[in-house]
Design a protein that fits this description.
The chain is mainly α. It has ten helices and no strands. Helix 2 crosses helix 3.
């Protein structure tokens, strides 16, 4: 990726991508840079919601396909571009859940594969048990609380970004986060 594009703002990249008919090479490079910037965080968000790596990869691909298709119509309305991508991801997850009747749990072999650098099987099993406890406790929270916890602490978005993704005020997100963490702590302690 050219250094020039790596240092470009999202708005600059979006303009280049939206004008890709005028300069196809620059447009394609801009789309590629947007993909590189947000692919990993969108994937982590989706994976944390669907608990299936292959499905998360497929849905992540769908997010970026949707991005490319809808980019000509995209208009910045004050929210970061990243929030728009998370809304697309969230809608795709909702659509998938409507179609699917069951939710797959994270398999032990997936955690072992993701922990390839660790050698001690005891640590791997302990980590898996902690992950399962957190997933279970998180799954018992109301959907809005789950979204806030995942977007804030798994994906790593700021309060402002979470508010944009969820279409809520920052103070509403803060209150929801506080209540969700308190409830999660109580569930994990019991």
């Amino acid at each position: 990726m050219p250094k020039l594009l790596q240092n470009s703002t999202d708005d600059e990249l979006i303009r280049l991508a939206q004008n890709r008919q005028d300069d196809p090479a620059a447009g394609a490079s801009a789309v590629g840079e947007l993909y590189d910037r947000y692919h990993e965080s969108i994937f982590r968000y989706i994976w944390s919601r669907v608990l299936d790596q292959q499905l998360a990869e497929d849905l992540t691909g769908d997010v970026f396909t949707s991005m490319v298709v809808n980019l000509p119509k995209y208009r910045s309305i004050g929210a970061p571009f990243q929030a728009w991508l998370y809304r697309i991801a969230r809608n795709l997850i909702i659509d998938h859940r409507r179609k699917a009747s069951s939710r797959k749990e994270l398999q032990l072999d997936e955690v072992i594969n993701s922990s390839a650098g660790e050698e001690d099987p005891t640590l791997i099993v302990e980590d898996q048990m902690i992950v399962e406890e957190i997933q279970t406790a998180l799954g018992e929270l109301k959907p809005l609380k789950q979204e806030v916890i995942i977007l804030r602490f798994i994906v790593g978005l700021s309060l402002n970004e979470v508010a944009s993704v969820l279409g809520r005020t920052i103070s509403s997100v803060k209150v929801t986060q506080h209540r969700a963490l308190k409830e999660l702590r109580m569930k994990l302690e019991s």
